[in-house]
Amino acid sequence: MLKAPDLQAIRQIIARAKRWDMLFSVLGILSLMVGVLSFCVLFADMAIKGVPRLEWEFFTSFPSRRAANAGILSAWVGTVLVMMVTALAAVPVGIAAGVYLEEYAPKNWVTGLIEINITNLAGVPSIVYGLLALGLFVYQFGLGQSILSAGLTLALLILPVVIVATREAIRAIPQMIREGSYACGATTWQTVRDHILPYSSAGILTGVIIGMARAIGETAPIITIGALTFIAFLPPAPFAGDPPAGMFDWLFAPFTVMPIQMFNWTSRPEAAFTVNAAAAGFVLVFMTLAMNGLAIYLRYRLRKNIKW
Amino acid sequence: MLKPVTLVTPVTASAPGDDVAPVLKAEVKALDFYYGSFHALKGVNMPVYDRKVTSLIGPSGCGKSTLLRCFNRMHDLYPGNRYAGGGIVLQPDNTNLLSDDVDPIEVRMRISMVFQKPNPFPKTIFENVAYSLRVRGMRNKSELEDRVQSALKGAALWNEVKDRLGELGANLSGGQQQRLCIARALASDPELILFDEPTSALDPIATASIEELVMELKERVSILIVTHNMQQAARISDYAGYMYMGELIEFGVTDQIFIKPQKKATEDYITGRFG
Would residue B262 count as lying in a domain? Predict the structure, then answer.
């Protein structure tokens, strides 16, 4: 005779346990909504105010005292040029530092200390970087209140992000791949060049773009080093001047960037300028989202060919 | 520094059905090795003969993989590992592979390795095999193609992959991947190939094809193989060594080790009373 299981009791236990499942998933959805909804509301508000202002002239006009004529030409050109300098400085230095820490550095307390400090650097307030850059780049090195100073400042700011992303991407490579390479007779550099960098490029690139997306919105350090808030001319086109010296004139030109232009407009009393600020904000958020989108796409593309 | 040591010569020096005395390819002499403070190899003496298959058997953790990885200085990649005495002398040039004067890269260029789990690079089939040639500076395209082809033929993989050399190595089956790794190890024309339990991640059919391949390869290269599978050691090796707790308990012609071991410990392990 089979013993009859107490199904009633089992089902009660399950039902009670499942109530917690239910409760947590509701809590989770609510928490998620706080983040997603507040971004959506902010973005929608900005879009409703700003989008009607987005005509061609808005992108091709300099700032002006008349809100209707003002545009973001000098701001977006400045942002693009500063980002170029930032990328050119932060990417090679950050990747090299990350590769060194993972593949070359001996594992001892000095390396450990450096590792902890790099993580800490990522949390240093950006205005501190601005102050450092004001003293170091602007005055000590005499680079002035230029695109070069701003680019290098933002490069310092995102360097920890690039280093940490590089290290994490490298750590994801299985040890057996390294051993396979060394067993073929490869040197450390050959292993890095032929295996480590190609296989971690997706992760590194994602980190670089996320870092850049952070840098593009930074205002405090750029104000600290002295970006202009009203600028009605463009820097010389990059690499277009008389070679060799003239090619780099653009690096030393005064500039402004998108967030500063926005900040400037929001501090004006006229309502029309607030609309301009909303429009510029919309463009800036769009730029950031586009960069993040690019990061996701590149990660997908590059990882397609990598299977362990 | 390598201290002079007297080698314990194996009881029988020639493999059955082989009248010519075997030629020494490498010789482990009084080798001591530490992982940090753990004494992993204790005074190991062992010969490896030219163009023969030598197998290392013994329970997990006995030091057989550790000994194998001394042969291509894999231990140098990790901090805390220490060769503490003795050496491995490679013939004919009488070089101690573990000497501080010998560059580990030079050792790895002479002695290649096949790992436990197939580890093809996430590159094409062609580039996987070509890699061991590229690190040796080979750039000529037609020469690379010839060498890759002959290595793939040597690894009995050519017919299966000749039309798909541009595909990723990871798209092959497990057994094919392991043969791809053998082709990679073979391409550089090494003097000795190390196999670290090469079939433990494979199914029986793939295992059989790897075993067959190992026996073919000994025509052209010396082979040292670590295996958990005693039948495998009996099937494919000419010489076998039984290791236990970091020591080489017994070494000899495979048939003798399996049929008439001299030591009680070996007999217990082989007959399954222990292990």
Answer: yes
